[in-house]
Design goal:
By secondary structure, the chain is an all-beta fold. The protein is 0% helix and 45% strand. It has a single domain, classed as 7 Propeller (Methylamine Dehydrogenase, Chain H). The protein has a four-stranded antiparallel sheet, with no helix packed on it. It is globular, with a radius of gyration of 17 Å.
Length: 214
């Protein structure tokens, strides 16, 4: 899976690409400069990382966070990088265990103080604090989901995606037990509600919609 994220550094468009590395065909995270006229991408930096399959920025785009599906740590890991405000290039800052296998998605909360990670293999979500310099601290909370479904990929919970709705609650679809959870995030994550889908439906993602006014 390749994930792209765009950020402006001075007047240039930059594209950040996370890749799978186990096949040996890629090195990790790649930073490209995009030509605004023809869209052509020119490689400007590569960062060695193990399977950084999903990337996200903090709200001010000062830091970039990446899942790492294997880094010699138990399960997977999460990495943080500083984004140079002039060049857009990345400098490694920190790594922390994700406390679960195959971390496949992550997000930063609206305050920039917390990163949430969905661990696909073990069906869990963890909360990691972010300090003022962009370094990740050890996980402050882990929520282990339970349940299963009738489908061939639903023997157990598989957290697949995590993000925040507009009020700042975490929303997590789970493929394995057919539920989407809404939870309040902070140092710990408290469950608020669960909604179950049809028996063979495997929710993988949700989309935020702004409430229409007037």
């Amino acid at each position: 899976m390749v994930v792209l994220a765009a950020v402006n550094a001075t007047t240039r468009n930059l594209v950040y690409v996370g890749t799978y590395t186990r096949s040996g065909r890629s090195q990790g995270i790649h930073v490209f400069q995009q030509d605004p006229l023809n869209g052509q991408l020119v490689l400007v930096q590569s960062i060695a990382e193990v399977d950084p399959s999903f990337l996200t920025f903090d709200p001010r785009r000062r830091f970039l966070f990446a899942v790492s599906e294997g880094l010699g740590l138990a399960g997977g890991a999460v990495a943080s990088f500083k984004v140079d405000s002039s060049t857009g290039q990345l400098s490694p800052l920190s790594h922390q265990p994700s406390l679960g296998g195959e971390p496949c998605h992550l997000c930063c909360d609206p305050t920039g103080r917390w990163v949430l990670v969905a661990n696909h293999e073990h069906g869990s979500v963890v909360v990691l604090p972010v300090d003022a310099d962009g370094r990740l601290g050890p996980a402050s909370d882990l929520q282990q989901h339970e349940g299963s479904g009738p489908g061939p990929t639903q023997a157990g919970p598989h957290a697949h995606w995590v993000d925040f709705d507009l009020p700042g609650r975490r929303v997590l679809p789970c493929r394995g037990h057919r539920q989407a959870r809404s939870q309040r995030a902070g140092v710990r994550v408290a469950a608020r509600w669960c909604g179950a889908a049809s028996p063979r439906f495997s929710p993988e993602r949700s989309v935020r919609l702004r409430q229409r006014r007037g």
